């Protein structure tokens, strides 16, 4: 049994844990004077009771918050084929055409198709798990000559693409939004922003100094792959980056760093700069210029570009709300920055999931829709990259590379 199949959000598993915990607690006084080797077994039963109590409390908090659906998503085991995935494609989606029958069958029911694969970046050579949502229209002959818009959805740390189906339940939300025409037919790309191992390896989607080019993989590599392989629109206004928590920071940071490729970003419970904590690697190694170039508040002031950003925070999310206020004060035209302050259940996935329909509607109102393949398509719209400092990461974007 793989860790990704062990559910942390199952009521049945929760009941089993509660029963085991109660039995362990009862066993401490029940067997207290019955053990032959009292010191050993008293210590063992107390330890067992404490461990089960901690695990049960954590599991209950996880169910309330909706953070991690499986043990695999919690530990980041690197296997992301999850419940709700319709098909497994080969490296870089080389056999996607073989999935057409599956996609056509789903399209008849108004459902998109979810495909999982490994993608290796052309520039960076970074290989990561990626899940793709292909809308029903992707397999519709009447849309064959149209290039669809794209959303790159960045999972929260330490989650990977499995959370798109198991945690967010996004395919159903996308199907509904497209059916109601609040969102145009849209391809959604869900990459693993971190790689493995997960624990202590939070990359914050940045090109690490002399390390891994996470940013470049998530932007230049994935965008180029999707335009070439999936045939999505190259128009910057047809590309949105979105995410929750660390994924929200990634979305705002990447859109301000690469405005020539992306027109919009949505951050739910995101913040303004890379975290410095026990889970985050030493990303910058003392390079203040790289640190500053990944600070959203500085980017919107020093490098304003015609991008639209929506930042959402909950009333109980003090840190995230403060960060959003700082970004709003720093933003200069032609950036269009808007924010929502919402009633929330704290910094957890339930708060995020409550916002998905409104977020999809916002994206639908701001993204460029499907466009004919045959005509000359706008790409950058005259928006130029600004000179990024050299990080030393292999294949990383630098200066004004495109």
From TrEMBL:
What keywords tag this UniProt record? Membrane, Transmembrane, Transmembrane helix
Q: TM spans, by residue? A: 12-32, 44-68
Q: Which InterPro entries does this chain map to? A: AB_hydrolase_fold, Esterase-like, Mycobacterial_A85_antigen
GO MF annotation list: acyltransferase activity, transferring groups other than amino-acyl groups
Q: What is this protein called?
A: Esterase
What organism does the UniProt record list as the source? Amycolatopsis vastitatis
């Amino acid at each position: 049994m793989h860790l990704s199949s062990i559910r942390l959000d199952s009521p049945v598993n929760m009941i089993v844990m509660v029963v085991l915990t109660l039995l362990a607690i009862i066993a401490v006084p029940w067997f207290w004077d019955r053990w032959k080797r009292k010191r050993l077994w008293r210590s063992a039963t107390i330890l067992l009771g404490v461990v089960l109590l901690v695990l049960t409390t954590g599991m209950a908090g996880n169910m309330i918050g909706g953070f991690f659906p499986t043990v695999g998503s919690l530990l980041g085991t690197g296997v992301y084929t999850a419940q709700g995935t319709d098909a497994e494609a080969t490296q870089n989606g080389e056999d996607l055409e073989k999935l057409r029958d599956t996609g056509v069958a789903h399209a008849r029911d108004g459902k998109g198709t979810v495909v999982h694969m490994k993608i290796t970046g052309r520039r960076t050579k970074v290989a990561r798990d990626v899940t793709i949502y292909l809308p029903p229209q992707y397999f519709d002959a009447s849309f064959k000559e149209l290039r669809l818009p794209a959303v790159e959805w960045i999972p929260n740390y330490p989650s990977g693409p499995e959370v798109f189906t198991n945690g967010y339940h996004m395919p159903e939300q996308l199907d509904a939004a497209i059916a109601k025409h609040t969102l145009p037919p849209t391809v959604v790309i869900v990459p693993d922003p971190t790689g493995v191992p997960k624990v202590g390896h939070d990359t914050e989607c940045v090109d690490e100094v002399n390390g891994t080019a996470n940013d470049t993989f998530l932007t230049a590599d994935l965008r180029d792959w999707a335009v070439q392989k999936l045939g999505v629109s190259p128009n910057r206004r047809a590309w949105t980056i979105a995410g929750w928590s660390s994924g929200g920071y990634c979305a705002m940071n990447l859109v301000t760093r690469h405005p020539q490729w992306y027109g919009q970003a949505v951050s739910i419970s995101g913040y303004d700069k890379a975290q410095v904590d026990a889970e985050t690697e030493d990303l910058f190694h003392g390079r203040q210029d790289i640190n500053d170039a990944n600070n959203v508040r500085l980017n919107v002031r020093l490098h304003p570009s015609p991008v639209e950003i929506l930042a959402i925070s909950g009333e109980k999310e003090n840190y995230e709300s403060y960060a959003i206020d700082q970004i709003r004060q720093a933003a200069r035209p032609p950036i269009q920055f808007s924010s929502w302050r919402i009633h929330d259940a704290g910094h957890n996935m339930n708060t995020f999931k409550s916002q998905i329909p409104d977020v999809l509607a916002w994206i639908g109102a701001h993204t460029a829709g499907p466009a004919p393949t045959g005509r000359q398509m706008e790409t950058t719209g005259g928006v130029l990259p600004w000179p990024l400092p050299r990080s030393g990461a292999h294949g990383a974007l630098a200066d004004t590379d495109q």
